[in-house]
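Protein Record: Sequence and Backbone Structure Tokens
======================================================
Scope: a single protein chain, as residues and as a discrete description of its fold.
Tokens: labelled as protein backbone structure tokens, with as many entries as the chain has residues.
Position: the record begins directly beneath this header, with no further notes in between.
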Amino acid sequence: MQTNIFTSDEQQRIIEAIRQAEKATSGEIRVHVEPQCPTGDPIERAIEVFARLGMHQTKEQNGVLFYLAHADRKFAVVGDKGIDAKVPADFWKTTKDLLRNHFAAGEYAIGLSRGIERAGEQLKHYFPYASDDTNELADDISFD
């Protein structure tokens, strides 16, 4: 099964969306893609991947992971405890709805790019960019 479902242009679009979103926030955004969700539960799997990628090590605990198991048609968006402590309970609902609409049409790269843009807009309210911010996590897409 194909692990990387994106063309090189689509990958660059997603990475650029991450870079643009992170310009407005100290939050850190990653994307992880795999064909199947080995646990069956995309949130549980996203939490595992979050830990494996070291996303819990950000200074403000404000990492966000977009997880996609494309063959299983499952996805999740999870944030670290620093984000969860500050945002309202429905914080990610609009982002998930946006992703769901694009994913249902097979538009994974567009959906991820727009979801990342939306997350960046939301994150900047709670974690605005500061002049001493450093990019704590890689902007590339990880694959299994």
